[in-house]
Description:
By secondary structure, the protein is mostly beta strands. The chain contains 3 helices and 12 strands. It has a domain of 88 residues: CATH 2.40.50.1020. Helix content is 13%, strand content 41%.
Amino acid sequence: MFVVSMQTQKLNSCTVMNSQLLxxxxxxxxxxxxxxxxxxxxxxxxxxxxxxxxxxxxTHLEAEGNYTFLCTREGKRYLMSKTLKSYEALLDxxxxxxxxxxxxxxxxxxxxxxxxxxxxxxxxxxxxxxxxRRKVKxxxxxxxxxxxxx
Length: 150
């Protein structure tokens, strides 16, 4: 037997896998499935108030050291004291994709994408964001169900 540790948002759990799974490594392992719950709202303290931001209103997130700017479709930016990596783990991976070490974008707000020599994406707001060489394939994978070659 061996132990696999999984960390979720609020809970550290330890699950013991029995030796039958070791004998058949291709068997379904439900404990390895990602958590089904994703973040749908973010509550932030801002100016003495609590503001609820639905994640579908986020156009992108920008890293600034150990802080993250949440950027909304209204053009507002909220500075949060969490890392971009922590938001990446919480947001819906079907909508949010990391395109650079400092940026996560919501693909629902993409209007243009350059993948050849100039790797960039353009959001509905007009903001142009660089896509790192290593993240182009991740972006294309997320967008592939929506792409049609003309």
